[in-house]
Structure formats: C-alpha cells, structure tokens
Amino acid sequence: MPHPLIVQLRFTRSEFTRALAGLSDADARHRFLPMNSISWALGHLACAEQNLWLTSMQGQMPRLQLDELCGYGQPASTPKLSEMWEAWQTITQMADPFLNTLTTEMLQITNEKHQRTTGSLLMRFIYHYWFHMGEVMAIRQLLGHSDLPEFVGDLDTQAPYLPH
To answer: What is the CATH number of the domain that holds 135?
Structure first.
C-alpha cells in the first residue's frame, strides 16, 4: 500500500481532474488577464511533476517542451487541452511506480537540488494542485459554467485519514 501522503496526492489529482470535467478546448485556452489559461495550469502541473518525480529523482524527461511552454517564469501560453491532458497522463503514470516506493524514511531525506525533504516536496505538490484548482474553478465560473463541483469530493472513501 502506498504511503498515506501518496494516497492524498492521488486524491488531489482526482479532484483536479474533476474540476476539469466537461471542459472544451476553447474554454481551456481562454485567458482572463492576468491569469493563465486552464490548459496552461494542467501543463504546468504536469511540468512540475515531471521535473521532480521523473527528472530530478529518476533522470527522465519524456516531455521536453513542457518547461518552455508551462514552466515557472515562462511567458503565458494557451496550449491545446488535449496535448496537456496527454502530457499530464503520461507523466503521472510514469511517476506513480516511483511514488509507490516512497516510505516514511525516504520522505525524510533532503533532496539536495531542492533543499527540502522529499516529504515536504510532496506536500508542496499537493498544495500546488489545490492552488491551481482554485484558479481553474474561478476561471470556469467567469466563463459561465454551471454544475461545477462545490466542495471537496469523497475524501472519506478515497483518501481517509490513516495513522502512520
């Protein structure tokens, strides 16, 4: 069984995908200045996962273009939603086997490149998702979308608190 924080990351990812359900490419690429587009947010999170879990921890970089397109500090962009979904799915699927190996002891090790423990980096990822999820929901409301999720999903079933 994965570490409880990995379970929380996966729940957070599922909540992020729930926030994007039913989204068209045109709406995903729309920008309300100064915010980025929703498709950028998806690519940005894929880029962040790739940079830490794949590149920094395993020496892999399957989507080279993500840093230029959606990396931190890059100019705003409005990439195709389908391309960002594909990149995000590929990267998260590639990261998951590694994430499944993380133990409490491994999460306490300081990542020299990032000068934080792996556990702190993992928690930052979870909060990073929630930060961008709030932006996504705001953009969708500005676009006039209705029937959006109003609160956190089924945490009690999908990712309940487990003492570790």
So the answer is: 1.20.120.450
**pTM metric for this prediction:** 0.91
Q: Cα–Cα distance between 113 and 57 in angstroms, integer?
A: 10
Residue with tokens 């491994």: 106
Question: Residue 22 pLDDT > 70, yes or no?
Answer: yes
Q: State the Cα–Cα distance between residues 84 and 100, nearest whole angstrom.
A: 24
Q: Is the peptide bond before 160 cis (omega within 30 degrees of 0)?
A: no
Least confident of 86-95, 125-134, 147-156: 147-156
Q: How many domains are contained in the chain? A: 1
Whether 130 is in a domain gets the answer yes
φ, ψ (nearest 5 deg) of residue 8: -65, -40
User: Of all helices (H) and strands (E), which one includes residue 117?
Assistant: strand 116-117
Nearest partner of 42 among 9, 68, 19, judged by Cα: 19
Instruction: Evaluate whether 89 touches 117 at the Cβ level (below 8 Å).
Output: no
Residues spanned by the domain of 137: 4-148
- Quote the CA–CA distance of 137 and 16 in Å, as a whole number: 10
- Tokens for 40? 């950028």
